[in-house]
Amino acid sequence: MESVAYAGEPMRMYLVMPRGCTDFAGALNRAKTCVYRVTKVEPGCQEPLDEAQALLQAREMLRELGVSNRLVGYPCLVQAIVLAARQPLLCRALTKELYPAVASQLGVSPATVERSIRYAIEQAFARCSPQVAAKYFGGIVHPQRGKPTSGEFIAELAYRLRRPLSCPWG
Description:
This protein is mainly alpha-helical. The chain is built from seven helices and three strands; from the N terminus they run E-E-H-E-H-H-H-H-H-H. The chain has a three-stranded mixed beta sheet with strand order 2-1-3, with no helix packed on it. The longest helix has 18 residues. The radius of gyration is 20 Å and the shape is globular.
């Protein structure tokens, strides 16, 4: 059983019928013996953002991380983060799906997008403070390299775009 509440809505309860139960009473009796986690969405953690708000937040995160807006990779990163926030499975296929989608939006080649993003991430981690890097990338910063991979960088910022830093669990 799972309960979900979005900001401004009443809480709804869902009961999933366990295997072997054919009636509601049997499922309810089995549910009473289990421990369930209640998930509540706080008011600061709303559902997906509109396009303009997502672009502004992506730019703000990159600015805080020290990515200069003069770099060629800056608009590539902004578009990649917003696309990955909208479709999280794109982070699993960077070179096949995400980079070509960003390239078509910006009118460049996918190889240019990949190279520009990689360089922008290197510059960001050369400039940003360790506290800011830990705030966004806590446990995923590689000990030898000192920076996340392009996929980790995009995926983490896309996650932060979907779940803002004000969320108690994010």
